[in-house]
Write a structure and sequence with these properties.
The protein has five helices and two strands. Helices cover about 75% and strands about 5% of the residues. Helix 1 packs antiparallel against helix 2, helix 3 packs antiparallel against helix 4 and helix 4 runs antiparallel to helix 5. The longest helix has 29 residues. The termini are far apart. A two-stranded antiparallel ribbon has the order 1-2. The protein is elongated. The chain is mainly alpha-helical.
């Protein structure tokens, strides 16, 4: 197990990832207004960042233990950098609605595939539930984006 400082750093990285996702979704909402998808996802990522910030003091007092590994740290850092790069590119070169949906779907899927929320554990039921909810919400986001992609491909409003 890593030190508490290293565990808190991991939560900080995860918070930054959630913040960058919310910024990306906010950008997509400005670019493609009139959908419920982007405002919903923006708020969800803001909520996730807040939840993770609530966990930090619990890591400090030892009630939540993080199973930190260098692969997870690196994956979070790489994904955060990729989100920032994607937003910069979309602002400069533009992005289509279907491109935005596919991009968002890739990021949400990546978090699930890399088990970004499975490195946390707590004996306290409240925090265990928060950790489960982070994973469940991300799964819901991926499903919503898959549905939105189908609708957009059919020319239906999302």
């Amino acid at each position: 197990m890593k030190s508490k400082e290293e565990q808190i750093q991991l939560i900080g990285r995860q918070c930054e990832l959630e913040r960058q996702l919310s910024r990306m979704y906010f950008f997509f909402n400005k670019k493609f207004p009139g959908t419920e998808l982007w405002p919903f996802l923006t708020e969800e990522e803001i909520k996730h960042e807040c939840w993770l910030k609530q966990i930090m003091p619990k890591v400090s007092d030892g009630s939540i233990i993080l199973f930190v590994n260098d692969v997870t740290n690196k994956a979070i850092e790489e994904m955060t950098a990729e989100i920032i790069k994607t937003c910069e590119k979309a602002q400069k070169e533009g992005i289509s609605l279907i491109g935005a949906i596919k991009t968002a779907e890739v990021f949400e899927k990546h978090m699930l595939d890399k088990n970004f929320f499975k490195f946390l554990d707590s004996d306290e039921p409240l925090y265990s539930r928060i950790l489960e909810k982070l994973h469940e919400d991300t799964l819901t986001h991926k499903k919503m984006l898959a549905t939105a992609k189908l609708k957009a491909n059919l020319g239906q409003p999302i």
